[in-house]
Amino acid sequence: MEFDKIVKLIHAVGESGLSEFSFEEGALKISMRGGEKQGKTVEFLPKAVEIKEEIKEKPTAITGKIVKSPLVGTFYAAPSPEAETFVKKGDIVKKGQVLGIVEAMKLMNEIESEYDGVVEDILIGNEDTVEYGQSLFVIA
């Protein structure tokens, strides 16, 4: 039997799913036995422990105008890691002034103030993931 035919035979038997195969032709004797099929490994994790934290302070109602994220992405408070933040709590801002950046799909989108006023609160941290419509700033 030619070498190419033997290789084809080995592949055919391997793909067939047979666990054992024997072939004899004259002085040629081929015997193959498949390995044990490996089962899927399933890893069981311990049950998650629920942690409850008591809220010591009552949430305060937000007073002022809210600037929300127009898209999902990563929030950046400064134009580069070495630069100062666009705004800080207490800064006076004008309508159209850049408050931060939301990166989405490698595009940097400036978040501009929709109002004139003072930055009363910054509700998001640098490099935090933001959702569409999530509150970012409070302008008083």
Automatic annotation (TrEMBL):
One of its GO terms (cellular component) is acetyl-CoA carboxylase complex. Keywords: Biotin, Fatty acid biosynthesis, Fatty acid metabolism, Lipid biosynthesis, Lipid metabolism. Pathway: Lipid metabolism; fatty acid biosynthesis. The keyword Disulfide bond does not apply. GO terms for molecular function: acetyl-CoA carboxylase activity. It holds the Pfam family Biotin_lipoyl. Residues 64-140 form the Lipoyl-binding domain. The keyword Flavoprotein does not apply. It comes from the Bacteria. InterPro entries: AcCoA_biotinCC, Biotin_BS, Biotin_Carboxyl_Carrier/Decarb, Biotin_lipoyl, Single_hybrid_motif. GO terms for biological process: fatty acid biosynthetic process. Coiled coil: none annotated. This protein is a component of the acetyl coenzyme A carboxylase complex; first, biotin carboxylase catalyzes the carboxylation of the carrier protein and then the transcarboxylase transfers the carboxyl group to form malonyl-CoA. NCBIfam families: BCCP. This is Biotin carboxyl carrier protein of acetyl-CoA carboxylase. It comes from Blautia hansenii.
